[in-house]
């Protein structure tokens, strides 16, 4: 589903190179965890996948279902099924959450040549998905992410993911700022979306989240490269011994 | 001979003076009114239109900006349009002429302002606010019509009153002295619109007195045509415990100056100004506001949101004056701007002049572009860039509209805003 080949990327503004020859393959149905110390390029990778313009790809390619997506706008990538759950979901005062959800769902449908959802159908879907994630209707009446607690913001991200039904889900530090109950709700939400035609990339610092969303593969990112890949036991190894050994071995 | 008389009059100045001369004998007014008119036009002739050297006109050099004045056409025809919100009582003023047909709501007395000119009762109100009051001068010299409204003590109007000013071409000079009695509650919509692309010059002065304990919402919705000059002025005076929520939307016009001049005259008075300026094309729009907190214990908040596209130029001047005796004044003014093109321009000049020592006053001004993180967030959810931008611009002003707390009105204004944004963004 996703093939990243020899990717090099830098911050557009100051030219700092963050991703330095990254290779990664994620198959449909797979849950891949990306781990790594601070500053290794994890969040940058998520932004480049989703099309943030603050980064410039200087070399390599990203193939999504065989198509090079680097020239596509963020909105086009989203409509094609790439979803980024933000580490810090953005507050937008003046945009009602429900209006945002409806516009997002319908714009994606329009792009794909599908009919727009009727209002009752839209309402039904939101209600169902919100109930699953224990999101109170009051929260949906507020402006987008405004006044949401950290946990509420993360749940709102998963709600969006459930409603938009993406094919490739990228979760950027979704566990940060969550207590254990919120973590379980979020993990259940993600697990409910696991399917043979959907891939999930879980970016995380800690093993903790991976107890709830069990990955098929684990990749260690360091200085903009994947320096080691393995199965879920690699995450346990990192939890026990830290990154130092692996970094040293790769050096 | 003083120096000013030596200045050669511009085409617009000549046209305004000629318009007056051509109508002498036809302009309504008794002896006292005609004598005020004469004085005003004489002042216009000698002082000319204000230039940037006049402090209050520094960012709007009317003498340069007002290049020509369309000829008044007494035969011009304009149709009334549907009310902004269902159920509103529409008071129709077309090409400057008030239509008194129809029933006034209970507690509201409506009189033609032309009659007040004819019997001379309007003479005192024609005085200008100061030597730099060019709008008062032009309007006082040329005003022909308008409405005088008196809302009786204790009247609570359920539905809004819409003063609907429709202009087709030429000139219109109108006035609206409106007096809200004690403990009245009402919403008034002062709506200026144009039916076509022909050039018009409009001047309009609303003189609002709010009685003790009254709670009034006054909305100015300016949607003139892209070739029009709009010179508007709101004057207000708030009695004890009176509340005035003044809501201004500029969404049209080529050259617009909207002045708001008010004062608090009774303790406990509360004033709220909310302004949205949607500016595009080559337009020039100036909102100039002065408020005198003249007595103790009065409050005001002012929030102006500007959205500036293309080569448009916006101006906000806000001056809050706190008199020496006006202790415990609480006044806060903010002017926030989204500049959406490299050639867009906005000048903000917030000022506080405080002579009392126990007050809370503040002001702030911000200018920004669309927030890129917010834009990326919306796009990452599949919303195309132009639509995402429109949503963010809309959000910037929607916050202000929602304060109105009147659902049909909020919806109507939101659709005016989104229609404007769709056309310009």
From TrEMBL, chain A:
Residue ranges constituting the ABC transporter domain according to the UniProt record: 2-248
GO MF annotation, one: ATP binding
UniProt entry keywords in alphabetical sequence: ATP-binding, Nucleotide-binding
Stored Pfam families: ABC_tran (PF00005)
PANTHER family assigned to the protein according to its UniProt record, in alphabetical order: ABC TRANSPORTER I FAMILY MEMBER 6, CHLOROPLASTIC
Similarity comment: family membership: Belongs to the ABC transporter superfamily. Ycf16 family.
The protein's name: Fe-S cluster assembly ATPase SufC
Taxonomic lineage from the root: Bacteria, Pseudomonadati, Pseudomonadota, Alphaproteobacteria, Hyphomicrobiales
From TrEMBL, chain B:
Domain of life where this protein originates: Bacteria
Record's protein name: Fe-S cluster assembly protein SufD
